[in-house]
Automatic annotation (TrEMBL), chains A, B:
Keywords: Flavoprotein, FMN, Oxidoreductase
Family: Belongs to the flavoredoxin family.
GO molecular function: oxidoreductase activity
InterPro entries, per the entry: Flavin_Rdtase-like_dom, Split_barrel_FMN-bd
Record's signal peptide: none
Superkingdom as given in the UniProt entry: Bacteria
UniProt lineage: Bacteria, Pseudomonadati, Bacteroidota, Flavobacteriia, Flavobacteriales
UniProt organism field: Kaistella montana
E.C. number(s) listed in UniProt: 1.5.1.-
Domain Flavin reductase like: 28-166
Protein name, as recorded: Flavin reductase family protein
Cofactors named for this entry: FMN
Length: 209, 209
């Protein structure tokens, strides 16, 4: 194994370290975050930090870093309280990645990246092309004191799912949707198995393989 | 699209809703969390909530939910301040899933699930079979007030990577490592592309396809 110590980490070239640490956090679902400001100017940003915080109430968090391209997103959320998470298939890889470019505030990434806006109940702006969409209501912003990064906590208000993706038990099949690692490397998931509930002293069984 | 409203969500059967909300948070890297208590009793738990919080210092968070199987893990972290994240390949799918079973505190999931302990510097317990391993130092536990879930923040102390997985630019290739969605469905990543840095008014280029 290659070993990288804490002091090695501190001495690495900045770009190398950023790439290393980003990719060490693993491969994760890509979400496009849709927002509007109070003048209904829309914004779209790409993240991979959506995290399940609880099912009752249905809370998801995501990480907003200081001085990143997501600043417009966080400003809009704090202004209007509403935002959306949108999962797209690999067909939209270039469009999704393009939303990481630093557009000025008066340009909408929806138009610039080739996505259509879908306004719902006058306050949610979804990506029309997305396969799975969630409307979120902002609850809390928690600042991590070590580096001023924010955990943005919200509650799911509504969900839209392509019918073929919703299974009988409530499981949402995300086959063919975009995931990424680091800042530029994209993946799709390949399903390998569904396993039985794990109990001590019995081996888990493959339910699908 | 199938629409599920906020009131629909509240009225869903509990098990259906748990499956739905868990899978809606997306597919994510599986990490095995290794800890020891002050008497050096080891513990291993499975999570998929490792989240990048920053590269300088190198901070990762993960979510510890109240009253879950991860309780021993959090207790050990608060007792000793150290823990490890371990990524394994799909060869270890059954072993990894088995670590979600509720073993009593005096049983080590390392032994029960067929993993070997690898002690480093007398304070980190790694999974010997893992392809990528990180030693973490506990910094802060932030409780999300809506549901008493904890965000556990730590700093990377050391990293071990299989040589073939570390690329020239610092990118860690996680091909063939386990990811999951919800509580029981496992995936491996299929790489589709690396894209050039996105800039306004120019289309991103495929660097690898």
């Amino acid at each position: 194994m290659i070993q990288i110590s804490g002091s090695d980490l501190k001495n690495l070239d900045k770009r190398y370290r950023t790439t290393l640490i980003n990719s060490l956090s693993g491969i994760r679902q890509v979400a496009l975050v849709g927002t509007m400001d109070r003048n209904r100017q829309s914004n779209l940003s790409i993240i991979n930090s959506v995290t399940h915080l609880g099912a009752e109430p249905s809370l998801f968090g995501y990480i907003s870093r200081p001085h990143t391209v997501e600043r417009h997103t966080l400003e809009n959320i704090l202004e209007t309280n509403y935002y959306t998470f949108n999962f797209v298939t690999q067909n939209f890889i270039k469009n999704a990645h393009q939303s990481s470019a630093r557009y000025p505030k008066n340009k909408s990434e929806f138009k610039e990246c080739g996505f259509q806006e879908e306004i719902f109940e006058n306050q949610f702006v979804f990506v029309k092309e997305a396969s799975v969409k969630m409307g979120m209501k902002f609850l809390e912003k928690i600042t991590i004191k070590q580096n001023k990064t924010d955990l943005v906590v919200g509650e799911i208000q509504n969900v839209f799912i392509e019918p073929s993706r919703l299974e009988k038990d409530g499981f949402v099949n995300l086959d063919n949707t975009l995931m990424n690692s680091g800042l530029d490397t994209y993946y799709v998931p390949e399903k390998i198995a569904k396993l039985s509930y794990a109990k001590p002293n019995s081996e888990p069984q493959f339910l699908i393989y």
